Description:
Number of helices of chain B: 5
CATH class of the largest domain in chain B: Mainly Beta
Order of helices and strands of chain A: HHEEEHEEEEEEEEEHHEEEHEEHEE
Order of helices and strands of chain B: EHEEEEEEEEEEEEEHEEHEEEHEEEEH
Helix content of chain B: 10-25%
Largest interface: A-B, 66 and 52 residues
Largest sheet of chain B: 7 strands, antiparallel
Structural class of chain B: mainly beta
Number of domains of chain A: 2
Radius of gyration of chain A: 22 Å
Strand content of chain B: 35-45%
CATH architecture of the largest domain in chain B: Beta Barrel
Helix content of chain A: 10-25%
Shape of chain A: elongated
Structural class of chain A: alpha+beta
Shape of chain B: globular
Distance between the termini of chain B: 69 Å
CATH class of the largest domain in chain A: Mainly Beta
Oligomer: heterodimer
Number of helices of chain A: 7
Largest sheet of chain A: 6 strands, antiparallel, barrel
Strand content of chain A: 25-35%
Strand order of the largest sheet of chain A: 1-2-3-6-5-4
Distance between the termini of chain A: 23 Å
Amino acid sequence: MSGTRRPSLTVSVCVAVLAAAWVTVAGRASALESSKETIGELLKIQAQVQSRLDLVSRAVVAVESDDGAASGVIVSPDGLVMTAAHVTTNPGRKILLHLADGTKTGCKSLGLDKSTDAAMMRIDGDRKDWPYVPLCRDLRMAKPGTWCFALGHPGGYDAKRGPVLRVGRVLKQMANGLQTDCVLMGGDSGGPLFNLDGEVIGIHSQIWEERDQNVHVSVAPFLRAWDTLKQSHVVRVWNTGVGGWLGVMTRISSAAELEIAEVAKDSPAAKAGLQSGDVIVTLDGERMLDQPQFSSAINSRAAGQRISLRLRGKSGPRVVEVSLGTKPVED
Amino acid sequence: MKRALVFCLLHGPLLRAGAPATAPPDARQTVAASVIRIEKPAGKLAATGVIVTPDGYFLTKASEVPKLAGSSFFLPDGKPARVREVRRDSRTDVLLLQCSGVNGLAAVKWSESKSLAPGQWLLAPRQGGREDARLGVMSARRREIKGGSAAIGIRMADQDSPEGVRIIGVAEDSPAAAAGLKENDRLISIAGEAVKKYTVAHELISSREPGDEIEIEYKRGGKLTKCSVRLASRNRVLSNWTGEDYANGGISIRTDNFPEIIQHDIPLGPADMGGPVFNLLGQAVALNIARVDRVTTFALPMEVFWPGVQQWIEDDRHPPKAVVK
């Protein structure tokens, strides 16, 4: 029972502030509901949901950990699983997954972002043919009024029942989340919210008392910190306004140029092949002259954003594209 | 229970409720036209009924209407009805009743439910037809729901005692709590049988059906008192032990032991049970039989009860005549 009382202070406060706005949304939603859709339109939605349901259900997993039951969704053929941070709570935890077809498999929690409740896991082993679903990368698509559907394992895994469907609409779009009237409950946490094309648009996170107060993490915090999460880092800095992280230390060379002194292990810079001794000439076309200018240029960009660096190294000039990450913080 | 924000991670016990979707306008009249309101003495909705013949035969959920005395019945036009019990079936939890002296009621038209698949839109009346019909989808596989046993929501000391078995805990919002039982009360008799052993007390309760009423004699501070307790499904009681059943109107007394169900996410309450479930064409396909939790309602597919109910009506209309030789 500890988990249901676990809401971190940050999240509780956020939600408390939003509560007043939600009441309005709920009222408006009901008025909207009672008039709009004709039977023809409803049948079209039904056809869309049913045409996707079998395929996407295969990628929905039931999660069993020491803390209790939850849900998740496989998003790559090699077994990356999206879920909620309050489900995994820490990187490196052993977790058991049940797939809709009855397959049972071990899994390990990777990185998580406690401020938004986004988390990632990876299925054990080398299988490269896991059923998986695509993500919707166009965040603008999840506008209020958009039809969507939720899957998950409310109440825990039940082999005879399988994943449970709920169809509803987006009521509100927030910076890192979505509110819908797809009703959730205990056990749904970490399960996927889909658009009618069968693409993931959110991950179930929290409920408020009313039936239309169901909150999902949007895919935004996942996309922003994809690599960081995959590398099992605990993301905590995003909301503090620190911004993107490249993972280099710089110095001014004897020729008065901005030069890379050191590259942090496993950082976005290391992955992009940046090396000590490389001279940074421009960032997104802007000439880099000194360290303060460079670090402020990095910090003012969001994690997840791609930057283009013109470098001059031992083997000559080159242009490198790097996705900024988030600076890992020891948990 | 004012604990609003909850992460949706399951830690044993559950939370509950459904979506605010209402039906398209053209379907609303059909949905409300065949509905009987069943009220408790204070005018509170107890259950919903569905009219199955123009001359007033209707169905409801048996365990929500344990006896007719004290209940009031209202026709779709709001007029009160005089009602008699025809047949009660514990296998399906269906109760067949008839309003006397009526004719020309709008009976539902049943249609097969076998072709329904998850994702299919379904409609159901809300608040005995007084609110707009609600919309939802079939949300999981059609299946059997095995029975747990019945319970009243008490924990007993595992010591036998000539002074009666001691209650050491009462679940919040349980039948025992509703009947006024408290911790440290001593159980003297259950359904007329003396209980000096806790195993006997357990057996007397769990061998019955959820929805049954039993009389319990207990001693509190030396004073002997009697109360009547309505049994609930064990699963329901267990999910309430930690008081997770807040807001959203609660769940049904009997939530298991059904031969086959259709699960849907129509946002309903326990008093909406006994009412019909329609497809978008306005054909009735199932009977709402159990509000289970925040996201789950079970409905009996028409194939499970309708052939039997037709036979009951037939038998009721043509009772066997005494043979005179």
